[in-house]
Amino acid sequence: MAPYTDEINDLRDKMQTAQKTRDMLTLQSVAMKQRMIYEKAGVSMVGMAILPIVQLPVTLGMFFGVKKLCDFPLEQLKHSGVSFLPDLTLADPTGILPVVSAVAMNIQLTLGARDMVTAPHMAHMINFFRVLSLVGIPLMWNLPSGVLVYVISSITAMSIQSVVLRQPAVRRALGIPIVERKHEIKSASFLESIDYAKKWWENKKKEQEDVIPYDLTPVLSGSPNTLTGRFMKLASCIQIASSQAKVVCYGRLLIHLLN
């Protein structure tokens, strides 16, 4: 999809504008153009949606399966045969494995970012996951060593796979398009990501304020004063509200009814 990144980003901007103005014709047109781009690139939107759904249960199943074996504990895991990790059912007393896991995650993020879609927010999302990996160190501190060995080995295998699949000879042999450097994601500093998050939050707040009133008293008062009538009046606001505004709207409706 990298060669079509500019077109997809333009369509995304048009879609956001159409959503704000509630222009249904433009939304349908943009959706059709986006579908045509995916077909031209040979990408199945259904496949893209199904793949994470298939991978997630396997990944989580392996993680919790290994953890269950360590918690049980499986007798063989108590004798790893490695001097610096003699018992895989216990947490690493040195604290090295959680740190290595976080480092491995950051390496994989760097390698995997090269093949991600060049969207404006992707570099900031990568920084967000980098922060999560560091925050996760204390959370992984008390995990059994066997679980962390599994995590590190899995991430290492993924990193090796990413490096191998980036080789032009391998890509040509497997029929995978070669991604030009101009299509790769440009890294962003953490300060830039913080500024981006602030602007995103301000835009979302403004969007909610523009789409739906925070003060629902005028909507919920007046005639008709029946409960059904108030719900009908509120529905007109909810229909044009964004998903975030719907949460605010329903919450304030509940407070109003309870009062």
UniProtKB/TrEMBL annotation:
GO terms for cellular component: mitochondrial inner membrane. GO terms for molecular function: membrane insertase activity. It is found in: Membrane; Mitochondrion inner membrane. Residues 7-166 form the Membrane insertase YidC/Oxa/ALB C-terminal domain. It is a multi-pass membrane protein. InterPro entries: YidC/ALB3/OXA1/COX18, YidC/Oxa/ALB_C. Keywords: Membrane, Mitochondrion, Mitochondrion inner membrane, Transit peptide, Transmembrane, Transmembrane helix. The chain crosses the membrane at residues 42-64, 95-113. Pfam families: 60KD_IMP (PF02096). GO terms for biological process: protein insertion into mitochondrial inner membrane from matrix. It comes from the Eukaryota. Belongs to the OXA1/ALB3/YidC family. PANTHER family: MITOCHONDRIAL INNER MEMBRANE PROTEIN OXA1L, OXA1. This is Membrane insertase YidC/Oxa/ALB C-terminal domain-containing protein. It comes from Postia placenta MAD-698-R-SB12.
